[in-house]
Specification:
48% helix; single chain; three-stranded antiparallel sheet; flat; two-stranded antiparallel sheet; alpha+beta; 209 residues
């Protein structure tokens, strides 16, 4: 009355087994990806903040041998507040790599794949920004290339921090003053605040607010 179902379990296993393998591989990869990304985010933020602090006018100094900050309590040992304009880190790239590797090494999870770090200081005219980017290529624990899955998964994180210095503040104020003077000379604007308020009122009237 019924057909032969002896091969039914074999067919079901043949269909489900690859799916189960892929789910298992995805879970393993996720267990590697999340801790690694978290550790890299923490490491890059530490590197960006450290480099920005070194370039800032603060009482904090960084000891590269111990990878820690120390507080300078003697004011006579501090540089002039505007010295940060002329001082510079000779090798930001190496310092960023060293800090990222050191902070990430404290993480308990295993370090899989290769790590590359890029550290740059960008002059935004109004301020300087330190950007640290880390890229770790994680190898896939199970070879799934037969279904078009990549051999490695890249984890890319970026962190940034702004430099705080007297020179940057003075330059920002000078820029704002110069721009205001340009508006006055170019357009004959005598009451910038009044013109902005008047324009806003016209827009509100047009929109019926």
């Amino acid at each position: 009355m019924f057909g032969n179902d002896k091969g039914q379990a074999f067919v079901e296993a043949a269909i489900l087994f690859p799916i189960m393998i892929m789910i298992f591989a995805a879970l393993v990869l996720l267990s590697i990806y999340l801790p690694t990304r978290g550790a890299l985010q923490r490491a890059t933020q530490n590197a960006a903040t450290t480099i920005a602090t070194i370039k800032s006018d603060t009482w904090l100094f960084f000891d590269e041998s111990t990878m820690t900050f120390y507080w300078e309590r003697n004011k006579d040992n501090l540089k002039n507040v505007y010295a940060a304009i002329f001082s510079d880190i000779t090798d930001v790239q190496s310092l960023g790599e060293e800090i990222v590797a050191s902070v990430e090494a404290r993480n308990l999870s295993a370090k899989a794949g290769t790590l590359t770090v890029e550290s740059v200081v960008i002059d935004r005219i109004l301020y300087k920004e330190v950007i640290v980017t880390a890229n770790r290529e994680i190898p896939i624990p199970v070879n799934l290339s037969f279904v078009g899955f990549p051999q490695t998964i890249p984890i890319i994180v970026t962190s940034s921090a702004s430099v705080q210095s007297g020179g940057e503040f003075v330059r920002t104020i000078d820029m704002a003053v110069d721009f205001g003077q340009f508006l006055l000379e170019k357009f004959g604007i005598t009451d910038i605040a009044g013109n902005i308020s008047s324009s806003g009122q016209r827009i509100r009237t047009l929109l019926g607010w």
